[in-house]
Amino acid sequence: MIRLSGVSHFIGGAQILHDISLDLPKGGITALIGPNGAGKSTLLSLIARLTPLKQGEITVDTLKIGGCSDRDLARVLAIMAQSTHVSARLRVRELVGFGRYPWHRGRPGPADHALIEAALERFGLLPIADRFLDEISGGQRQRAFVAMAFAQDTDYLLLDEPLNNLDIAGARGLMRLLRDMADRDDKTILIVLHDINYAAAFADRIVALKNGRIAATGAPDQVISDTLLRDVFDTDAKISRIDGRPFVMV
Amino acid sequence: MAKRLILLSALLLVACAIYIGLGAEGAWRFLLPYRATKLASMLLVGIGLSVATVLFQTITANRILTPSVMGFDALYVMVLTVLVHVLGGVGYASLPAALLFAMNVAGMTVLGMLLFGLLQKGARGDIMRLVLTGLILGILLRSVTEFLQRMIDPAEFQMVQSVSFARFTQVEPSLLALSALVTLPALALAWGMRNRLDVLGLGDATATGLGENPKSGQAQALVLICILVAASTALVGPMSGGGGSFFGLIVTALAHVITPSERHRILLPSAALTGCIILVGGQTVMERLLDLTTPLTVVIELIGGILFLVLLVKRKRA
Ligand SMILES: Nc1ncnc2c1ncn2[C@@H]1O[C@H](COP(=O)(O)OP(=O)(O)O)[C@@H](O)[C@H]1O
Ligand SMILES: [Mg+2]
Question: What is the ipTM of this complex?
């Protein structure tokens, strides 16, 4: 369980997050949605300890952010940051291999190699395993990063807008892989999505953020409504339902 | 990759043998210790500066920077100028070499740490700010130096000039030992960081996710860089006359071509070997074949400058 209590955050005097308390139970996919600038990335990077936590408390299972070692946390929580630019020239297999680093600290054993191959296979990366990251498509690159997080073998996975720059096939493919990780491997996934339709289709829970405050939480078919679009997203788009699942009419 | 490292080692061995053996006339008894000291100092500087440059490029995620942008060389020349200015040429020449060495190493390490203090300050402190600050500081130090140099007499100015370029001609065995005492532990620590450096090279966010704190890794690497550069510069003088040393740039560019790997367990030895081959081979050619007294660094600056432009242009296109 990821538990946030009383989390506030300031950047240069401006308050970005206001006293956020939230419990994310273990298992399933939680989508963090909200308009641009709502504080989604800030919240995610606080949980991921990419930004130092100044006010409030965040725990992941028994580990306290800011209080536990980076190493211990890396065996429980994997992250995929919003920008995954890597300046080093790496092959796909090497990148995925880094996922094992928190476990072997630079000395991979046979078990690590087996897990890396398994991750490559599962994410359909075997045919391009020996290609460099700058020689593959954006979708393949995103998949390689998710495969790395998978190889990290953590219970929790945080992703910030992984669908950016992906076409519909790439985006659906990635979301299906994540869904599969949640269903088959009991991963707990927290993902920032800006497309509400993807959140409705793939998430078990939605947390909507606006101006640094939680505006709504709950199952997609309860949270996503005309009211939400009006109050949180400031748009008068309508929701229609197909087989009970909400769709935003864009 | 392992094969290429062995090949580089063999090449270096040959270069060393030629350097020691070529044109040996007169008593070996005198020649051997003399040449061996020079050779050892070249190896120490070659390894030290190459490793420092690899570390620096990894923590700055930039392939066209070298530690000299932080103003180390400028500081060295300024200290030198101030000393000559205050003590006079004779007074400077009579300073104990070990004292000078200690002052230089201490001065440069303090400079590096001060710059590093800036890095730690403020939540958004980033490595690029550190580099830029160092760059500006270097310009400042250089203008102070130039100002002082205008005020000292021409003979003394000549003296400052002659030691403002790295030379391997007058290396004191005692200094060499001192320098080794500082350099070798730093090299061992750098080697110990090789796997962490691989992870740091993935960028701050990814490294953090893998449990490697970028700030602490960068801090440790920076301390090692300061020590390595300071120890080499204090031993033989600055590797650059002006803007920034191109030696490290040539070495890392070549190492990336010879052993195309991002792994530091390959890159560190590969760069160290390449650096030594360039220094020993270059010095042999300059000293024995061409019989030139021009410091090798001047040639390295020239070649490095051209390479720098090529790299810049290539980056623009890529
Ligand atoms: N480095 C920064 N400096 C100043 N303001 C920032 C910085 N980063 C984010 N912000 C502000 O914080 C707010 C939340 O940003 P962010 O968490 O990136 O939003 P989201 O991911 O929901 O679009 C925005 O109003 C943004 O302008
Ligand atoms: Mg964002």
Answer: 0.93
